[in-house]
Fold each of these.
Amino acid sequence: MFSKLKKTYFGVFALFFAVLAVSSIVANYSVAYMNISTEVFARLNVLTASFYCVLTPLAFVLGVLGIYFKNDHKALSWSALIVVTIPFLINLAQMVFSLMDSN
């Protein structure tokens, strides 16, 4: 009855959400350089940052689940983890350098 394991798709969804997370952070940076009013900037900035803050942990967790489960796409899961971690580390480094400059 349980001899055949079903294929799971955590890796596929992790990579999908990782690409969405990266596109949202790119949109966030592009909003900063647009020639728009302060109100529109505030709305777009909050919207894109919120998408990034939701999608990044979601992609990371799905990637870890894809690596953990036996019958999943491991290469896609690793790709998702790499794609979502690199922009996060870049933002973290920028924040640390900014904090070091302010002190």
Amino acid sequence: MMKPKEPMQYLPNCLFQLFEKSQDAIYVRRHHDLSFAYVNPAFEKFCLITRDKVYQQSESWFDNIHPDDRKTYVTQSKQYYTSMQPNFTEFDFRIHSMHSIERYIKETVIPIYDSDLCVGFLGLLQDRTFNQVTQPAGFARAAYFFQYFTEKFHSVFWIRNEDYTTQLYLSPGYKKVWGRELTDLYNQPDLWLETVHPDDRETLSDTACLQALKAQGFNVEYEFRYRILLPDNSVRWIKDTSFPIYNDEHHCIGFAGFAEDITKEVLYAEEMQLAKQRAEVANQAKSDFLAMISHELRTPLNAILGMSQILRVKGLPSEFTEYVDNINLAGKSLLSLVNDILDFARIEAGKLSFSVEPFDLHELLLQSVQSMQFHADEKQLQLVLDNTVPNKILIGDSNRIRQVLINLINNAIKFTEKGKVIVHARLLQQDHERYLIHFAVEDTGIGMTKEQMNIIFERFSQVDSIYHRKQGGIGLGLAIVKELVAGMGGEVRVESEYHRGSTFQFDLWLQVQTGLQQTSHTKFPFFDLTNRPHCPFNVLLVEDNIINQKIAKIMLEDFGCQVTIMSNGRDVLEHLNRLTHYDLIFMDIGLPDMSGFDIVKRIREDPRFQDIPIIAMTAHILNQDRQYAYQVGMSKIITKPISYDILAETLRSFMPVPAS
């Protein structure tokens, strides 16, 4: 028997190259066993199978024919291959895979003859998917679904031509949202602009919209937000999302978009904004109220603490010294409470501020412990400082750190009846020029239950009941400690065992001051009665409260100052020329006729008084007051109640530097 001739030898090389480049699938099959002699690269994409597999198993590609079409195709194709018909034939079927879309294929098969002998078949597979889905029946079905969708949807779908002058399509939602007939806009597209609120029309004219849309470029959405007027003159807010439509040549052929009624969302946002503003006003009113209460409490406190200090300095019989100390101690406790209230006001208003300056941590720890030693001694408790941090000048908010430590130490002493309180400070980690320092205050006090530990940092929370109280306070101290530590980048934690004691601790990253000369700007002065500085300043004291006048005058005179008193702003401005005789001015802020801020502004307007030191004395210590004081020309601010310590530090800062 003669061996069948190989059909591939009849294909010229040029035709072979054409097959390889073709976007349609092409194959050549042998007649005697229907095996594949050739499959072009496109066949792999069409039939979702590799050429090697087709060469090995000629019927393997049948698996990718749609199950509904596979049996018919296999039957009809075999009938054709065995019928020896000289004419070509065509088959229609679908290629289907779990990982690709369904594709419609048209296969054309032509027999290959050598003389009168059929030696094989040439096949051509074409992807007809696009033609299949874009036939009129498909359009009609899609149009039906689109119309059904747009009629049910509350938003407005619209299409306009390329120059924005003709309304090509408008969904029924227009009547629902705009309250007007669709035919009006089809007949006169410009009527749409008349429905827009007059204040919004300028940016929504056809010309403006066209320019805005075209300026966005290819395939970019543009959002308009505007108000419309309904026939009853009620107002609705619209969000209109638009985009240009381009043809295959990237030429703009129109514009489309959808408009939504967002009135509820806008009104809700406005209500939320109003609620926020009302909350801010309420918070400010609360802060102002607390600041006013603080001021009103600080004024009598200035008299209590000031007079008790003066009595102590002037000397008393020994039997009265204890009484004065008790008055001073009670006054300081009340002052601590006032400070807590003011800090609470700052926290509520979100105005808690922090400073960054060099300070000596060793000095800070020592002074914090010393300031609480008297309270510990009263209860016969040991107060111990355990500090192992390297002696370096650090940078941070020393006042806030000291406030936290004193609050924790005071709290520990308050709830410890016997034993000791230990203040720990140690270096946990060093990172370049920073220290991570661990602070802890440990006591042997009453301890806490787990339930108490869960609420101890909440505002106005206390361990003991209001009806069974041994300790004072209003439950703000630890809540303020939590906020202060968080503001410095740390987190306060507590470990406690009931009837065994508690440990409050926190960690802070602090910058280490570099350079040869390490200096601290933060001092913690304690007034030394035997070594008070002599400051022979000529001082003008502007203060309206008679008791405050007496306290400030006595204290300043004890430092060697000559004091003149004026009780209101009018007297100061009427005797402006006399200010040249004074070295320092102590200015109360809350005067009856005008504020100390206004007086200082007037004084600084005179070139003669640009350099005279003016020290603000105030019970208003909100941040905005401090900032404004410096803006108008205050040189320094001291907070009431004043003390010998504060005045000593203030007077020293203005003493002339001795010549070297």
